[in-house]
């Protein structure tokens, strides 16, 4: 029982720490430095497109991103600026 509690605590800590470092979508970029732009395509919903941007921003070392263009009909595409 003791080992189960310890494993649970470690697992919860891992999820909290991994979520805390994810890039977030932002509207205000004051005080942040633009470090580039990313694009995404093939998303079925805006949430999927935002998820793609978040993952790509994380890979680039960004702390946040701002979507500047999005469009499409059946499959969505877009461009976002990334900030540190």
TrEMBL record:
Residues 1-22 form the signal peptide. Keywords: Signal. Transmembrane segments: none annotated. Pfam families: YdgH_BhsA-like (PF07338). InterPro entries: Dodecin-like, YdgH-like_sf, YdgH/BhsA/McbA-like_dom. Residues 33-84 form the YdgH/BhsA/McbA-like domain. The keyword Ribosomal protein does not apply. This is DUF1471 domain-containing protein.
């Amino acid at each position: 029982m003791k080992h189960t509690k310890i494993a649970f605590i470690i697992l919860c800590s891992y999820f909290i720490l991994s979520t805390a470092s994810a890039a977030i979508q932002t509207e205000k970029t004051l005080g942040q430095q633009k470090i580039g732009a990313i694009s995404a395509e093939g998303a079925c919903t805006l949430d999927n497109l935002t998820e793609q941007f978040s993952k790509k921003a994380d890979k680039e070392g960004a702390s946040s991103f701002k979507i500047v263009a999005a469009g499409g009909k059946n499959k969505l595409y877009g461009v976002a600026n990334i900030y540190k």
